Amino acid sequence: MSESSVAWGGRVPEFVRNKALAAGATRWLDDLPSLVAGLSREWSIDVGAAYPDATEALVAEATLHDGTPAVLKLCVPRVAEAARYEITVLRLTGGQGCVRLLRADPERGALLLERLGRPLVRLSLPLRRRQEILSAAAARVWRPAPDCGLPTGATKGRWLIDYVERTWEALDRPCAERTVAHALACARRRIEAHDDERAVLVHGDVHQWNALEADGGFKLVDPDGLLAEPEYDLGILMREDPVELLTGDPRERARWLAHRHDLDADAIWEWGAIERVATGLLGTRIGLQPLARQMLATADHLAE
Question: Rounded to whole angstroms, how far apart are CA atoms 136 and 152?
Fold first, then answer.
């Protein structure tokens, strides 16, 4: 093992460590040095420093044997199939809309990816321009993908309901009861509306930390991977930038996104409602502040 392969020195970013601990993945944290060392040998890569702003996985700089820059991603073992779903999305997109997958080991939750440029969040662009970039990037992912083994939007809706109900109680109810009731009602309507014939491959977590510069545009990273109505991806944009959502008419954002992609504004709004509460609760659990407080405060304000 080369010295560079352990250059990150076992220093796991705080949010990744908190996510692993919340998932009960203490052993994964302990085993990271040997996992990095094994992949460094098997894939003939040198592994450098971890990116400090990762939240869902250990993500580190890597270099191929021929000098090509890459990225090594080691997923926190939270949901048994999460890494497989991400690998499936990246194989289906083939570098179009999403980052290109170079190597993968689903059993170890390991992915070797092309190295992209700066994340959108670092570019300080106006909100509307960011939404244009993100919605356009999401649309490049949307495509039929029947029988690919990914969960459906209905499955994700049921998971969100269960997660919100359990986590809201566990965190001593950090937002209003009526807010939770509204979010769950929105999720139930999206579950009922699911249509396998209309469902497409969606990224599932489209936000400005997950969009990186590439080829004169942007590619998405860290896909969750669903077969769902495309409004799901745009609902994530209703979850993000929660403070700005309260400036003027909050539903105008949903209408603008719907018009831009010829989709249903109500569906975008409803996915945003359940995702806002679920992500606010998750952020509260792992210490992602002040964003989590802002999401839940906005959710309280918008609950009908």
Answer: 22
